[in-house]
Specification:
About 0% of the residues lie in helices and about 60% in strands. The chain has no helices and eleven strands. It is globular, with a radius of gyration of 13 Å.
């Protein structure tokens, strides 16, 4: 089992920045990939950014150059630095991980609201 707890969401003006954190606990040695997803009202959940065990990163086209995913293995924490935020980035952001057995875990989500 893996537990994921997100924090860092909030209300910010367009052009501002936020940093999301995701603290992982449990059987984390078997985690193969960690990622951030988001879901806006009325839309499907979408991948924002991901990082593999080997450090390879992937970003949605809409956030490239603005968001940065990173991790601190010593703290078992995943981060998402979000800069130049736009109203279209408003969504609930979820932390996700997949272990080596392809089992998937989700956090409870944290709301990000960007005002224009």
């Amino acid at each position: 089992q893996v537990q994921l707890v997100e924090s860092g969401g909030g209300l910010v003006q367009a052009g501002g920045s936020l940093r999301l954190s995701c603290a992982a606990s449990g059987i984390i040695f078997a985690i193969n990939r960690v990622a951030w997803y988001r879901q806006a009202p009325g839309k499907q959940r979408e991948l924002v950014a991901a990082i593999t065990r080997g450090g390879t990163t992937t970003y949605a086209d809409s956030v490239k150059g603005r968001f940065t995913i990173s991790r601190d293995n010593a703290k078992n924490t995943l981060y998402l630095q979000m800069n130049s935020l736009e109203p279209e980035d408003t969504a609930v952001y979820y932390c996700n991980c997949v272990n080596i057995y392809s089992r998937e875990y989700w956090g409870q989500g944290t709301q990000v609201t960007v005002s224009s």
